Amino acid sequence: MSGSLALASDAVSCVAIIIGALTITYYHQYWGVPVLTLLIAMDISWESWKVVLEAINILLFKILTSISMTD
């Protein structure tokens, strides 16, 4: 993930938290905060999963290049 995309994702999460706080303050709608929290958690999980897959691919490539095919 590029740096600017990560910052944009963080900014969207912060805006979602602010919207949730305003919704509770002015409209007394408490269901919005858990929904926003789940959306933010899904976003973080998705981005983390991509990093884990990239790390696995890097590790497998290093392991496969160290194996000799002549033995």
Explain what the structure shows.
- By secondary structure, this protein is mainly alpha-helical.
- It has one domain (3-66).
- It is built from two helices and no strands.
- Helix 1 runs antiparallel to helix 2 (32-66).
Helix content: over 70%
Q: Roughly what fraction of the amino acids lie in strands? A: under 5%
Listing every helix as H and every strand as E from the N terminus to the C terminus, the arrangement reads: HH
Indicate the structural class: mainly alpha
Alpha-carbon distance between the two ends: 39 Å
Number of domains: 1
Q: Per the principal axes of the C-alpha atoms, what is the gross shape? A: elongated
Radius of gyration: 20 Å
Number of helices: 2
Average predicted confidence as pLDDT: 82
| Low-pLDDT segments | none
Query: How does the major sheet shape up?
Result: none
The tally of strands reads 0
Short characterization:
This protein is an all-alpha fold. The protein has two helices and no strands. Helix 1 (3-27) packs antiparallel against helix 2 (32-66).
